[in-house]
Amino acid sequence: MFSTPFVLTFSLLLSVPILFLLAPHFLLPPRPLRQVLISPSDELDDLALFDRASGSSLSFSHLSTGSNPKLKIAFLFLTNSDLHFAPLWERFFKGNSNLYNIYVHADPAVNVTRPKGVFKDRFIPAKRTYRASPTLISATRRLLATAILDDPANTFFAVVSQYCIPLHSFRYVYHSLFTSSSFDLSRTESDPDLSRLGVRAKYKSFIEILSKSRSLWKRYMARGRFSLMPEVPFEQFRVGSQFFVLARRHAMVVVKDRTLWRKFRSPCYREDECYPEEHYFPTLLSMSDPNGCTHYTLTRVNWTGTVNGHPYTYRPTEVSSELIYQLRVSNYSESYLFARKFSPDCLRPLMGLADTVIFRD
Ligand SMILES: *[C@@H]1O[C@H](CO)[C@@H](O)[C@H](O)[C@H]1NC(C)=O
Ligand SMILES: *[C@@H]1O[C@H](CO)[C@@H](O)[C@H](O)[C@H]1NC(C)=O
Ligand SMILES: *[C@@H]1O[C@H](CO)[C@@H](O)[C@H](O)[C@H]1NC(C)=O
């Protein structure tokens, strides 16, 4: 038999390596890989803006016939470089001046050329943005809040980037969102019907909301194991594309939110799964109004052969009428309305297709 002192010494000795093995897991918090913290003064600026937008009760009832206000689409351009496709968008918007508004959030650290024409004076006060950080959530919320305050007629809010192109004419986009009863293939009998005036009683938001994704758990844990608790249990966590088209009441939900923002603004521990803007919006809207969202996006993207979280980027030689037709095909709606990503030098071939293909529908 072993003597008691021997057992004691032995177990003490044994516990040393065990402590070492376990130590990093419960003694030291993991070190964030990327510390993009939003400064308190930036946070206060945003809060003031979001508070003003939240208090804005102005919005047109789209069923009112009295003054017959024109409902508009707010296009929210989120960019950290020049708007390469400004001439294409210019042609897209031409002749529809009372049906849209444009807002541009350009990273102030980059010397972005401000295009004339429809983009003139449409740049909003912006702050720095960094990939894989909550700064992209803030920038999007700034765009939404500014657009809500700017014009009560803004009814849909479409986020696009400098790499996005339109796949149809403005008229087609407008009709699809506001009046078509067949555009949304996921629409069911129980959805609000078209009124006799031909407008939908309650618009849906076109935002991708995914609950089955290979890396869902890793993304949930990206800010630390229990960092989203108790507000967001794993079962309620969702992911999806940051390129969405929100109905006004959902844009309001986003600018009014304080609770989830406090969680999702935390820096990530895992850089490879850190795309806060792809987590925050789908989770927030899925938690607040799942039936008011289509759960799919209207912006086509090609994830085949993805590298470092970047989708495929089309080159000028690939731009053709066949590509445009191919990119329109969707499983969820009659057509995709936008597509990304295109390299800046695609502008020429795209302009060549503008009138004969892209805007002919
Ligand atoms: C930004 O670009 C303009 C025009 O190209 C140039 O005149 C200006 O000096 C640039 N500013 C900075 C800070 O690079
Ligand atoms: C998607 O990208 C791949 C290359 O990664 C390309 O071969 C394919 O043609 C693209 N698909 C479409 C629909 O453009
Ligand atoms: C549509 O669904 C089919 C079958 O799931 C899939 O193979 C195809 O890639 C989808 N198309 C698009 C454009 O997502």
UniProtKB/TrEMBL annotation:
Keywords: Glycoprotein, Glycosyltransferase, Membrane, Transferase, Transmembrane, Transmembrane helix. It is found in: Membrane. It comes from the Eukaryota. Its main location: membrane. The chain crosses the membrane at residues 6-28. Signal peptide: none annotated. It is a single-pass type II membrane protein. GO terms for cellular component: membrane. It holds the Pfam family Branch. GO terms for molecular function: glycosyltransferase activity. This is Core-2/I-branching beta-1,6-N-acetylglucosaminyltransferase family protein.
